[in-house]
Design the sequence.
């Protein structure tokens, strides 16, 4: 806001509050400040004023322009297509309202895909976070060759997901696979990895875990190292054990990082594609849709059946699901992990109420 | 926040975005520039997948004859990649002057036959009737230049046949498999005796049966009959009752299927010519493979490709000339000699490259002769509508569910009916 603007607004408000800025300064009753001398701005002054006002926007604009082209536009375009019976090749379509959404939601395959997606997501995210936390705590200890261990944790992340898929697919082959071979040594019968839904989810989740555990561990480790060591020293002096220190210092301090890790792994988990696609030779989620995930189904509708109207509707449904889960995640994580600002010093609710009562008594007396 | 400035900023952003969209829209509308001078230097691009047998020497031959032409050959790894690329760019820009099409998605492409340049009238009749029929649109325009075909025969392991007390001689084996019932009977006997699977996969039997039906899932006018057609149900029942018990795997191309092939687990396969190379490549250690000149129930074609010329290309006339040359009997006979892609032009069957061809891996079987006989035995040209492969894929999955023991035959059939009713 410039000075002129502010003055105009101020005068308007002082004279006739409801009429707002339209009230011209000349209409103000007597007693108003004397009319200011008219200032004529030179071009260069004007230029510097614009510079001041617009430059910040200009500097951040590349991102937003790029985002509008490659982010906002496709999202909007997808929304438009999702209401149409769209022919991708002739680039034309007929508006049919919510039919595509209805079609998707009435497909048994969709619900199976939803089940599979959540099953794989849970089977991957939960063990992954626990394991990542464990690895991070271990790496946070005083160990020899720190960099070596840290780099090793990150190594699987370097492998391309499709390569992981190919390798694990060969390892998890029902008859000729290495995994069933190992299990055979322990007398565990061959597990039908490509037949039973649960086992296929375990196999796929193991690919995800293989790739992402180290990555999450390193992020958590970075956050752990930012925790001031004084807390631990003080806690040790107070007689808190390792476990107690972890629960009361480490975990609460990791809250923002945990939220980040959980939300990214939620988004990643719900969009899981490469691993199930590489899980058999057809990439269509199995004959009985055992490992069909939402994105795999979306891809199949779009690029398998060339029905982009349905695929677009599907994409929007997925978008809404992720949004909803993300919010739920945020709320749950916030309430589970206590606020870092009042690390352990925040009184419990009962204590706060007791304090309040004491205060009231004080006042009453 | 200063809302006016924000609005202005937003307007600027949207203006830029709109400009970008308009730009993107414009680039699609370039009219094909026909060069008036036939000798002006031009570059022709051709996009194929896997290996069509169009070696650099072969293309150089054409360039020597047409000094103004430079050919750029792009190979996609798989036909799926080629399919995705083709449909993404069809009706737009970015396609090569000549694109290769696999028979599996030819029906899908035929919906857009008007976006392709038709094959000149004088070339009609060069290919087998059923090869031409599959690429001819409702108005009688042929849009695909046939390259190779996949007439199926039966490949068998002479050593395993001998061990099971079956004949091993090519001619005698051919006598065993004239009908599907014979095949299933021999298979059941073999499996009972040895405890080993006879055929590789149940879905290859389904494929063989389906390609002998004129109408499977859709009629010629586009009416969907998939769930009512008694032939489909019969085919399904046959596969479930007779093929599933004697096959090793539900479908082909899985890790286990390849491993099984390398170990020499099964005794026979229904095999089109392009499968020869796969068997020889995957199971170099296995000896005893041979080919019998027979296919149950007559003939059957599996696979094969076409070349098409997108109508909005820059050098349509020159591309048509090259496509015609590439699919001439002489050149296809050479392609066969190169990679074993069997020609779809009957004239080529008289040429020495074909008649004299033998395959060392398959006990020196006269593959040229066998394939020529097998392609002449193909009498049915199946009607394949745009959704044919979706229906067929879903039925493959139904058979797989039964093979894997996930569902009973009846449940699996019902699931298939539900699924395809939603297409």
Sequence:
């Amino acid at each position: 806001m410039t000075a002129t603007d502010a003055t105009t607004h101020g005068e308007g408000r002082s004279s006739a509050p409801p009429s707002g800025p339209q009230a011209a300064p000349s209409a103000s009753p007597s007693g108003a400040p004397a009319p200011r001398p008219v200032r004529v701005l030179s071009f260069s002054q004007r230029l510097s004023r614009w510079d001041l006002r617009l430059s910040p926007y200009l500097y951040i604009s590349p991102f937003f322009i790029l985002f509008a082209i490659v982010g906002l536009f496709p999202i909007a375009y997808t929304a438009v297509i999702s209401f149409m019976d769209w022919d991708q090749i002739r680039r034309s379509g007929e508006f049919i309202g919510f039919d595509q959404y209805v079609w998707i939601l009435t497909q048994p395959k969709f619900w199976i895909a939803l089940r599979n997606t959540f099953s794989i997501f849970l089977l991957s995210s939960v063990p992954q976070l626990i394991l990542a936390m464990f690895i991070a705590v271990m790496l946070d200890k005083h160990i020899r060759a720190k960099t070596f261990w840290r780099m090793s944790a990150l190594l699987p992340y370097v492998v391309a997901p499709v390569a992981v898929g190919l390798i694990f697919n060969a390892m998890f082959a029902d008859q000729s696979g290495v995994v069933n071979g190992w299990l055979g040594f322990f007398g565990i019968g061959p597990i039908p990895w490509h037949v039973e839904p649960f086992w296929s989810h375990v196999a796929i989740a193991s690919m995800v875990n293989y790739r992402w555990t180290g990555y999450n561990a390193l992020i958590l480790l970075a956050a752990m190292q930012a925790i001031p060591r004084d807390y631990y020293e003080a806690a040790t002096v107070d007689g808190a054990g390792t476990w107690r220190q972890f629960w009361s210092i480490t975990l609460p301090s990791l809250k923002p990082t945990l939220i980040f890790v959980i939300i990214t792994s939620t988004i990643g988990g719900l969009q899981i594609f490469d691993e199930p696609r590489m899980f058999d030779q057809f990439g269509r989620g199995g004959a009985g849709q055992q490992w069909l995930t939402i994105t795999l189904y979306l891809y199949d509708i779009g690029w398998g059946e060339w029905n982009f109207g349905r695929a677009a509707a599907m994409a929007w449904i997925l978008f809404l699901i992720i949004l909803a889960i993300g919010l739920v995640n945020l709320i749950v994580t916030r309430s589970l992990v206590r606020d870092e600002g009042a690390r352990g010093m925040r009184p419990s609710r009962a204590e706060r109420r007791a304090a309040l009562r004491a205060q009231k008594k004080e006042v009453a007396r | 926040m200063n809302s006016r400035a924000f609005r202005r900023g937003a307007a600027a952003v949207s203006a830029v975005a709109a400009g970008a969209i308009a730009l993107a829209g414009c680039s699609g509308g370039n009219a094909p520039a026909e060069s008036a001078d036939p000798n002006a230097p031009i570059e022709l691009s051709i996009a194929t997948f896997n290996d069509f047998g169009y070696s650099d020497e072969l293309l150089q031959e054409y360039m020597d004859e047409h000094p103004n032409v430079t050919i750029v050959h792009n190979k996609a790894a798989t036909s799926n990649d080629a399919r995705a690329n083709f449909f993404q760019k069809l009706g737009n820009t970015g396609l090569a002057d000549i694109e290769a099409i696999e028979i599996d998605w030819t029906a899908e492409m035929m919906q857009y036959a008007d976006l392709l340049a038709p094959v000149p009238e004088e070339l009609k009749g060069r290919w087998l009737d059923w090869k031409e029929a599959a690429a001819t649109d409702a108005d009688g325009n042929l849009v695909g230049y046939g390259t190779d075909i996949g007439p199926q025969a039966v490949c068998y392991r002479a050593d395993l046949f001998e061990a099971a007390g079956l004949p091993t001689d090519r001619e005698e084996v051919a006598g065993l498999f004239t009908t599907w019932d014979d095949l299933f009977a021999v298979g059941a006997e073999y499996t009972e005796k040895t405890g080993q699977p006879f055929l590789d996969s149940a879905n290859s039997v389904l494929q063989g049966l389906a390609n002998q039906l004129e109408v499977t899932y859709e009629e010629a006018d586009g009416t969907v009959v998939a769930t009512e057609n008694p032939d489909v149900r019969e085919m399904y029942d046959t596969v479930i009752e007779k093929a599933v018990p004697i096959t090793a795997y539900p479908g082909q191309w899985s890790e286990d299927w390849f491993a099984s092939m390398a170990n020499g687990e099964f005794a026979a396969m229904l095999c089109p010519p392009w499968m020869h190379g796969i068997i020889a490549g995957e199971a170099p250690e296995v000896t005893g493979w041979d080919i019998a000149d027979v296919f149950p129930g007559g003939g059957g074609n599996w696979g094969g490709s076409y070349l098409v010329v997108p109508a909005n290309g820059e050098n349509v006339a020159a591309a048509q000339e090259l496509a015609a040359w590439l699919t001439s009997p002489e050149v296809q006979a050479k392609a066969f000699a190169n990679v074993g892609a069997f020609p779809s032009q009957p004239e080529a069957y008289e040429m020495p490259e074909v008649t004299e061809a033998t395959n060392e891996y398959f006990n020196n079987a006269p593959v040229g002769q066998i394939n020529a006989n097998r392609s002449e035995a193909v009498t049915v040209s199946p009607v394949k509508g745009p959704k044919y492969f979706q229906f067929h894929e879903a039925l493959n999955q139904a058979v797989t569910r039964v093979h894997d023991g996930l569902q009973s035959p009846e449940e699996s059939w019902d699931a298939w009916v539900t699924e395809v009713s939603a297409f």
The first strand of chain B starts at residue 42 and ends at 49.
